[in-house]
Amino acid sequence: MNDWIAIGALALVGLLIPLGMMAVSYLLRPSVPETSKRATYESGEVPTGGTRIRFNIQYYMVALLFLVFDIETVLLFPWAVVYLDAVESDAVSLFEILAPMVAFVVILLIGLAWAWRNGAVEWAQTTRQVDAEGNRS
Amino acid sequence: MTVGIEYYVLLSMLLFCIGLFGILTRRNALMFLMSVELMVNAANINLIAFAFYHGNLTGQVLALFVMALAAAEVAIGLGIILVLYRNFRDVDVTVPTTMRW
Amino acid sequence: MAVVELPEWAALAPVLILAGTALALFVFDSINPRSTNRTVLAGTAAIGSLVALGVAVWFTVAGVGASGLEGFGAIELFDGQLVVDQMALYFMIIVAVVTALVSVASYDYMEGHTYQAEYYSLVMLAATGMATMAAANSLVTILIALELASLPSYALVAILKDNRGSIEAGLKYFLIGALSSAIFVYGISLVYGATGYLQLDAIATQLETGAADGEFAYGGLLGLGILMLIGGFAFKTASVPFHFWAPEAYEGAPAPIAAFLSSASKAAGFVIAFRVFTTAFPLDATSALIGVDWTLAFVILAIVTMTVGNFAAATQQNVKRMLAYSSIGHAGYALIGLAGLGAGSELVMGAAMMHLLVYGFMNTGAFLFVALAEHWGVGRTFEDYNGLGQRAPVACFALVIFMFSLAGIPPLGGFWSKYFLFTGAIEAGLLVVAAALIVNSALSLYYYSRLVKAVWFEEPPAARDSLGQPTGLYAAIVFAAVMTVVLLPGFGPVVETALDAAAAMIA
Amino acid sequence: MEGVFDFAPAIAVFPLVAFVIALAFGKHLPKKGAIPGILATGGSLLLSALMLVAVSSGEVYHETLYEWAAGDATSATGVEGIAFTFGILIDPLAALMLVIVSLVAFLVHVFSLGYMNAEGETGLPRYYAGLGLFTFSMLAFVYADNLLMAFMFFELVGLCSFLLIGFWFRTKSAPSAAKKAFLVTRFGDYFFLIGVVAIAATFGTLQFAGDESFVAAAQTAIDDGGTLFGFDAQTWVTITGLLVLGGVLGKSAQFPLHTWLPDAMEGPTTVSALIHAATMVAAGVYLVARMFGYYALSPTTLAIIAFVGGFTALFAATMGVVKDDIKQVLAYSTISQYGYMMLGLGVGGYVAGVFHLMNHAFFKALLFLGAGSVIVLMHHEQDMWKMGGLKDKAPVTYYTFLAGALALAGIIPFSGFWSKDEILYDAFIVGLEEPVIMAAYAMGLAAVFFTGFYTFRMVFLTFHGEPRSEAAEDPHPVGWSIKAPLIVLGVLAVVAGAANLAPVYKLTGLELTFLESWLDGEYGAIEGLTYGAYGELLAYETGVVGTEQLTVMIAAGLSLLLAFSGAGVAWKLYNVPEPVVYRDRLGRVGDVIEANYYQDEYQVWLAEGVTLPLARAADRFDQTAIDGAVDGVSTASLFGSDRLKRIQTGIVTNYAALLVTGFIVLLLVLGYAGGWFL
C-alpha cells in the first residue's frame, strides 16, 4: 500500500463532503425569488448603485506603484542576507558591497520622484488631469 | 521524507499547462494576465525546487528576480489594459482587430 | 594600449551611458514635468546614444574584448554574468546607431505629442536593455536585459494613447510578449534544473562533463528547456511561430518605434541567441545529451520564417505592414547564422552579424521613410505613395536604396551580407536553406520594387501640396541611405570584425 | 638589342591610338584620319622590324603584363588555381607575323589615300578608325601569349571585320554581307570558346609557351596515360583541339564555314586586302601555327586539318573558275590558298604552312590592291567582261598584278611556287604512307590546275585583248599612293620565295632554307616552339619515291606541269582580242559551280528550314510552358501569399493558439528526430 493512496482518499473525501452537502441543500431548499434579495447589501442603508461600479483610476495607479516598489524591496532581501558576511570578510570592500545597492536605491528614487512629480500619487485629480479625462471620452 | 524532484516538476508543469489553458480560452485581458502569471510562477516553482535539489541558491535568487519582473510586467500590462478600455470600451482581447492580414 | 588604465567595469561604458541618458531624461522630466522642449529631449537622447556609439566603436578599434596579441581578451564582469567581447561591442554599435537614428527622427515625428520626455527615456531604457543583452552572459542577466528591453517597448508601441491602432498594437505585442517570456522563463528553469547553473560557461562545462561521463539524466528536461529558450529568442527576433505580434506591432506603433523594434530589438534578440547557443550549448555535447542537433530547429525556423515573412509581404497593401512582414523575412535570413553553425564555420554566423548591421541601416531607413510619409500625412497604402518621387526626390531616392538593398541587389550593402549568408549556407551544407534564401529573395524583389514603382513611376492620385522637409527625419534617412551604400567600400573592416567576433564565439 | 622588347606593347598600342584619334578628331584632320593611321602602322612596322632583328640576334620575349582575374579552381590535371592574364610572346613565328601584318596594314593605309580619300568617300574617320582597330586587334592577337587573350582579340578582329565590311552601310548588300561574316565566324567561335574553356578546365593554364603551357601539360597528360573527363587523354586533346579548330574554320573561311568570305567583297577593296592577306583570314591559320604543338599531339586532328584544307583548296578553286567579278575570283582564290596552308600544317609541314602564309600575305595583298587599282581605273566597275586592254594604259598596275598572279598560280620562280610546292611535297611524302593524306594531296594537286586557270583567266580578261567598255578605253588615272604599295608588294611577291628554297636545298645541298632555320630556332626561340620540337611530336611516317631528290622532282614537276597547263588553257581561251563566255558549255556542272555548289542555299535551308522551325518551337515552348510556368509560379506565390497572410486573423487569442501549436509542432519534430518519445 502506498502512502499516497491514503492522502488521495483523504482529498477525495474532503472534496466530496462539502459538494454533497451543497447538493443536498440545493435540492431541499424552497426557491422564492424576490427583488430585495438581490439588492446590494450596504449595512442596511438604501443602496445607491449596483455592485459593479468602476473604481477611481488612482486606485490602480497607487496599487501599481505599491506593487512595483514592494517587489523591489524583495530584491533587497538577498543583499541583506550576505551584507554582514561581506563586511566582515576581507575579500570585498565596503564600497563594493554598498555601491550596487545604493545605485539600485537611487534608481528607484528617481523613479519615485518622477512618478510623484507626474501626479501618480496624488489622490485628487489636478485640473489638467480632469481636462485630459474630459478629452478622452 | 523528501519528495522526489520529479513531483515538483510535474506540479510546475501542471501549473504551466493550466496557465496556458487560461491564455488559450480566456478572452478577458485580466484573466490573460493572470494566466501568464501562473505560467511564470510555474517556472518559479521549478527554480526553487531545483535550487533545493542542486544545493545552490542561484535558482532562488533568480526566482526573486522573476517575481520582480513579473510585477513590472503586470504594471505595464495593466497600463495597456487601461488605455485599451478607454479606446475600445472593453477589456476583451478579441475585440481589437482593426489590423489584420 | 590605453594610456589610462580603465577599471574593468568601464568596459560596460556604452551600456552605462545609455542608462545614464535614460535616467537623466527621467530627472529632467521630474524637475520639469510635461516638458515639450523637443530639442533638449531629442538632443539628449541622440547625444547619449551617439556617445555610446562612439565609445563602442573606440573600444572595438582599440581591441577591447578582442583576443590575440592586440586585444585585452574578453572582459568578464560580475563573475561572468556579463561579458564584453567583440560580439558584444559589435551589437552595441548596432543598437546605438539605430537608437541615434530613431532619436533624431523622432524629433519631427513626435511633434505635438504630450509625453515627450517619457518617450525618449523609454527609448533609452529599451536601448539600455538591448545593449545589456549584447553583453549578457548568464541566463539571469539575459532574462533581465530581455525584459528591460521588452517592457519599455510595450509602452512605446502603445504610446499614442488616443490612437486605436497603437493601443491594439501595444496590446498584442504585450500579450504575445508576456506569453513568450513566460515560456522563456520556464525554459530557463528547466535548463537550470538539468544543469544546476545559469552562467553560460558553467552550463557548457556541466554539459560537457555530463556527456563525457554519460551520467547525465535530464536530457529530456534539457531538450525541452532549450526549445523553450528558442521560443524566447524567436519572440524577440520576430521569428515564426512567435512572430504574430510583429505585423500589428510594427503597423500600429509610431514609425520610428517600428524601426527601432525591427532593427535594434531584432539584433539584440539575435545576439543572445548567438551567445547562448555558441557558449552554453556546445553542439557535440548537447547533441549527445538530447539526441538531436539543435541546429535542426534553426534550420526549420529559418526556412519557415523567411518563407512566411516574404510570402505574406507579397500582397500587402499597407506599406508599413509590408515592411513588417519583410522584417520577419529578414529574421529568417539571419537565422541561417544559427542554422549553419553545425559546420563549425564562423563564416555563416559572421554573415548573419553583417546582415544585422546592414539591416540596421536599411530597415531603419525604410521605416523612417514611412515615418516621413506619416509626417506628411499622405496615407498608408502603396497607392497613397504614388508619385512621391516628384515631390521629394531626395527621400525617395534614399527609399530606392533601402528597397534595393533589402532585396539584395548588388552592389548595395544588403547584397553582400546576403551573398555571405548564401555562401555560408552552402559551405555549411544547407542546400535547402540556400535555395529558400534564393527563392525568397526573388519574391522579395517583387514587393520591394512595387514600392519603388509606386514612388517613382506612378502618377500621383491628386494634386499634392508641396511636402515639408523635416530636418531630423531627413537627416536620419539620408544618413541611413549613405551608410547603406558606404558599407560596401567599408565592408572589408566590417567583414573582418564580424568574422573575428564570430570566430571568437565559436572557438 | 637589350631592352627593345620593352617597346613591344607599343606595336599594338600605336594603331589603337590612331583608332582613338581618327574616331575623335578624324573629321577635323586634313586627311580624315589617314595620317595618324599611316604614322601608327609605320611605327608598328618599324618596331616589328626591330623585334625581328632582336629575335634574329637570339632573344625572345615572353612576359605576363597584367593579371585581370584569378581563381583557385583545381583543374582536371590537378593544377591548383588558374590566372587569366594579358601577356606578350614574341618568338620567331610571332615576330615574322608582326612584320607581315604591320607591313600590309601600312601599305593598305597608304593605298587608302588613293583609293578612299581621292575618290571622295564620306565617313572616312569611321573607315580609318576601323582600320586602326583592326590592325590593333590583329597585332595583339599575334603576340598574345595565352589562348584566352588570343580568343579575345580573335573576337575583336571579327568585330572589326563586321564594321569594315559593312562600311557602306547604306547599300543593301554590304550590311547583309557584314552580318553574314559576323554570324558565320561567330558560329565557329562558339566552338572556339568552348574549346578555350575546356582547355582551361583541363589543364588549368592557357599559356602557349613555357613549362606551364597547356601544350606541355597535354603532353604530360598523354604520357601519363590518364583519362580526362572520362576520355583517354589523347582523345580529349583531340576533342578540345577540334573545338578550337571550329574558330579557325570560321575565320580562315574553310569548308563548310567559308561562305561569308565571297560576300565580304562588299567592303572596300582595301579592307578586302587587309582581311585576306594579313588579318582576319590569316588569324585562323596563324592560330593553328601558334598552337601547333598542341595539334601535333593529336594525329586525328592533324589529319582532319589536312583533309579539310585539301578539300577546301580544290573546292574553292573550282568555284573561282566561273566568277566574273574580279574580286570574287580573288575571294575564292583566298579560300583556296588558305586551304593549302591548312593542308601544309595538317601534314606536319609547319614551315611550309607558315611560308605560304607569308608569301600569300604579300601576293594576295598585292592582288587585291591591284584589283583596287583596276577598279579605280575602271570607274568602279568590277565585272571582268567589261574590262580588257588595260595592259598598256596602266603598266605599273599590270606588271605588279602579273607578278602577283604568277605567284598565286605557283609559277617558278615566283614566291608562291616555292611555298606551295613545299606544302605539296610535304603532303606527298606523308601521303605515301597515309591514304587519307594522299587523298588530300590529290585534291591539292588538282587545285593547282584550277588555280593556274582562273588566275590567268582573270589576268587576260582584265588586261589583255581589246577594251570592252567605255571605261576600259579611257581609264581613270591612278596616283602614287596607289602605285607605291603595288610596287613594294610586287617586288616582295617576286623575291619572297627566296626565304626558303627547300627544293634547291634538297637537290643541290645549298643552305638556302632561311625560314626553316628561323622557325627551327637557330637564331633564337622559345623552347618547345620550334619546328624541330614539333617534328618530334608528330606521329607521321614519311616515304619517298626512289630517292629524296627524285621525290622532290616528281612533286615539283607535277605541280608545275599542272600550273602551266591551267595557265595555258586560260591563254588559249582568253588571250584573244574578243574573248567569249564559255560558261554555257559546262552545262549543269557549270550551274552547280556558278551557284557555289549550293553552299549558301543549303546553309540558308539549314537556317530557315531547320533552325527556324526549331527556334519557333522553342519560342512557343518558352511562351507557353516556361512563361506559363513562371506566370504560374508567380500567380501561385501571390495566391499563397494571400492565403498565408490570412493566418494573421487579428485576434490575439488565435495568435496565442497558433504560437503554441507551432511550438508543439517544433517540439514534435525535434522530439521525433531526437527519439525523445521512444
Keywords, separated by commas or semicolons:
heterotetramer, B: 101 residues, Helix Hairpins, elongated, C: 507 residues, mainly alpha, 20 helices, 2 strands, globular
Can you offer a commentary on this structure?
Chain A: It is found in: Membrane. Chain A: This is NADH-quinone oxidoreductase subunit A. Chain A: It comes from Natrialba swarupiae. The complex is a heterotetramer of chains A (137), B (101), C (507) and D (678). Chain A has 137 residues and is an all-alpha fold. Chain A is built from 5 helices and no strands. The longest helix of chain A is centred in the middle third of the chain and has 32 residues. Chain A starts with a helix and ends with a helix. By secondary structure, chain B is mainly α. Chain B has 3 helices and no strands. The mean pLDDT of chain B is 87. A two-stranded antiparallel ribbon of chain C has the order 1-2. Chain C has 20 helices and 2 strands. With 507 residues, chain C is an all-alpha fold. In chain C, helix 7 crosses helix 11 and helix 14 crosses helix 20. By secondary structure, chain D is mainly alpha-helical. Among the domains of chain D are: 293 residues, no CATH class; 53 residues; 29 residues. Chain D is 70% helix and 4% strand. Chain D contains 28 helices and 4 strands. A two-stranded antiparallel sheet of chain D has the order 1-2. A two-stranded antiparallel ribbon of chain D has the order 3-4. In chain D, helix 11 packs antiparallel against helix 15 and helix 17 packs antiparallel against helix 19. Chain D is globular and about 110 Å long. The N and C termini of chain D lie far apart (87 Å). The mean pLDDT of chain D is 82. The interface between B and C is large, with 47 and 42 residues.
Number of strands of chain D: 4
How much helical structure, as a percent, in the residues of chain D? over 70%
The structure class of chain B reads mainly alpha
Mean pLDDT of chain D: 82
The residue-averaged pLDDT of chain B reads 87
Q: Tell me the greatest interface.
A: B-C, 47 and 42 residues
Report, as a whole number of angstroms, the end-to-end distance of chain D.
87 Å
Brief summary of the model shown:
The complex is a heterotetramer of chains A (137), B (101), C (507) and D (678). Chain B is mostly helical and 101 residues long.
Please describe the topology of this protein.
The complex is a heterotetramer of chains A (137), B (101), C (507) and D (678).
Chain A lengths: L2 H26 L6 H4 L18 H32 L5 H24 L9 H10 L1
Helix pairs in contact in A: 3-4
Chain C lengths: L12 H19 L6 H25 L12 E3 L4 E3 L1 H24 L6 H20 L3 H19 L6 H32 L4 H14 L5 H19 L7 H8 L2 H26 L2 H8 L4 H20 L4 H21 L6 H31 L11 H4 L1 H15 L5 H15 L3 H26 L14 H16 L4 H16 L1
Helix pairs in contact in C: 1-2, 1-4, 2-3, 2-4, 3-4, 3-10, 3-14, 3-19, 4-5, 4-10, 5-6, 5-10, 6-8, 6-9, 7-11, 8-10, 9-10, 9-13, 10-13, 10-14, 12-13, 12-18, 13-14, 13-17, 13-18, 14-16, 14-17, 14-19, 14-20, 16-18, 16-19, 17-18
Chain D lengths: L7 H18 L8 H23 L4 E14 L5 E11 L1 H26 L6 H19 L4 H19 L7 H31 L10 H11 L2 E2 L2 E2 H19 L8 H4 L5 H10 L1 H11 L1 H5 L2 H23 L4 H21 L3 H28 L12 H4 L1 H15 L5 H17 L3 H29 L6 H4 L6 H16 L6 H7 L5 H6 L11 H7 L10 H27 L12 H8 L4 H46 L7 H23 L4
Antiparallel strand pairs in D: 1-2, 3-4
